[in-house]
Amino acid sequence: MGDHFVAHASLLLSSFAVLTSIASHCGIRIQRAKRMKTIDLRSDTVSHPTAEMREAMANAEVGDDVYHDDPTVNQLEADAAAIFGKEAAVFVTSGTQGNLCALLAHCQRGESIIIGDASHIFRYEQGGMAQLGGIIPHTLPVQSDATMRLCDLEAAINPDDEHKPVTRLVALENTHNMAGGVPISAEYTAQVAEIARRNNLILHIDGARIFNAAAAFKVDVQELAAGADSVTFCLSKGLCAPAGSILVGDRSFIRRARRARKVLGGSLRQAGVLAAAGMIALHKMRHRLVDDHAHAQLLAEGLSEIPGLVIKSQNTNFIFFTLADQVAMPLDDFVNRLRRDYNVFMSPYSGERGVIRLRTHYWIDRAAIAKVISAVSAILS
Ligand code: TLP
Q1: What is the domain partition of the chain in residue ranges?
Q2: Ligand 1 atom having least distance to the Cα of 124
Q3: Ligand 1 residue neighbourhood (C-beta within 6 Å)
Q4: Residue 315 contacts residue 182 (beta carbons within 8 Å)
Q5: Which of 43, 44, 96, 126 lies deepest, with the highest CB count within 10 Å?
Q6: Are 57 and 277 in contact (CB under 8 A)?
Q7: Count of CB atoms situated within 10 Å of the CB of 242
Q8: CATH topology of 37-48+288-380 equal to that of 51-285?
Q9: How far is residue 358's CA from residue 321's CA, in Å, rounded to a whole number?
Q10: pLDDT digit string (tens) for 77-131?
Q11: C-alpha distances out from residue 288 to 168, 291, 294, 301, Å
């Protein structure tokens, strides 16, 4: 019986090897399943491109995008502009670059912008606006609902006074990273836009995850972008493209943003290879973000039933949690054990001591969630 099994198995293996070699001889590639091996919840930035994206990238039509000659990039930019209800768009390498291009295109050196003190642009982009653009951030406290108080905003606008920098712009972030993935409503954005218009200010939105906000509110992204002069959004993260973000706005702004992208070294040549994945991100993946939100809710519910674990918040695809005071295990040991024994990746959140931030994404399915819950409960039991 044992010998029989071995004989069968080796026959099966050798037939597979023969088939594979015939296929490769004929130029047919047998696609291996491309799955993420680990359960990686550290961020949605860890998401890998899907098999469909890899195929589209391999077959992308390309040209030199600095000459505006890449048909795939041109299509992606046109589609993004239409989806956001803006005149034009430019493909950039990252969310950070999109935000910086926007600020460099909107503001002169010595001008000031009003921005949340917990915003990604202020906290996590190396102060690029000041380093490279001489732009001065005037920060306001971000509330737990991810907004800045409108009265604070009005009060922060500098009068025409030669002692003070000219206030040029106000920036929002939707969904808000440090607030825990909280989405900002179209109504609030419209109120900020009205204040901006009345005071001759530009409104920029860091919409790295604005499609998560649209999914959460069940609104068209145009409603969230309606009052904004420019929006950056990411094709990576929840939308799974391997790289790339898009900045949208009016034509003359996008022309200036393209100049800023050039000086930042971000003008790519045959970028259609990336834009091909971006097309799938933009047209297909944004419609499934509701699944990531449902998975985050499921995971938070499961984790909340484990004694010793305290859920602080769950919004869109984000979960923040802590270990209860009675748990003796240091947070780093908890994280290391999950990684070593269960291949589950989490990391302590840099924004607040003692807190772990999780993010769901395309590669976190229901089976992964069940594994995470049982791994965490085994470690804490
Ligand atoms: N955020 C990253 C880290 O940089 C913290 C993450 O893991 O969340 N805006 C927002 C709101 C973001 O969260 C990020 C990325 C960016 C901009 C920058 O995007 P990239 O990483 O493409 O430059």
Answers
A1: 37-48+288-380, 51-285
A2: 4
A3: 43, 45, 94-96, 120, 124, 173, 177, 206, 208, 234, 236, 245
A4: yes
A5: 44
A6: yes
A7: 17
A8: no
A9: 8
A10: 999 999 999 999 999 999 999 999 999 999 999 999 999 999 999 999 999 999 9
A11: 36, 6, 10, 21
Name the pTM for this structure. 0.91
Q: pLDDT tens for residues 264-317?
A: 999 999 999 999 999 999 999 999 999 999 999 999 999 999 999 999 999 999
Distance CA 108, CA 136 (A): 10
Give the residue whose CA is nearest to atom 16 of ligand 1. 95
CA-CA distance, 178 to 85, in Å (whole number)?
Answer: 28
CA 177 to chain centre: 9
| Alpha carbon distance 95, 90 (integer Å) | 12
Q: How far is the first Cα of the chain from the last one, in angstroms, to the nearest whole number?
A: 42
180 CA → ligand 1 middle, Å: 13
CATH of 51-285, one of 3.10.180.10, 3.90.1210.10, 3.40.640.10, 3.40.50.11740: 3.40.640.10
Cα dihedral 272, 273, 275, 279 sign: positive
Distance 200 CA to ligand 1 centre (A): 29
For ligand 1, the distance from its centroid to the CA atom of residue 208, given in whole angstroms, is 7
Residues 6+ apart with CB under 8 A from 284: 52
Q: Are strands 318-323 and 347-348 parallel, antiparallel or unpaired?
A: unpaired
In single-letter form, the type of residue at position 84 comes to: F
Torsion of CA 303, 363, 182, 337, to 10 degrees: 40
For the CA of 350, the nearest atom of ligand 1: 5
Q: Contact 169/143 with Cβ under 8 angstroms?
A: no
**Pair 98, 232: CB distance under 8 Å:** yes
The domain 37-48+288-380: what is its CATH number? Answer: 3.90.1150.10
Amino acid at 294: A
Exposure on the CB side of residue 229, measured as CA atoms within 13 A: 24
Structure tokens given for 101 = 């291009």
Q: For ligand 1, pick from 46, 210, 234, 346 the residue to mutate: most ligand atoms within 8 Å of CB.
A: 234
Which of 120, 233, 319 for mutating ligand 1's site (highest number of atoms within 8 Å of CB)? 120
Residue with tokens 């999780």: 358
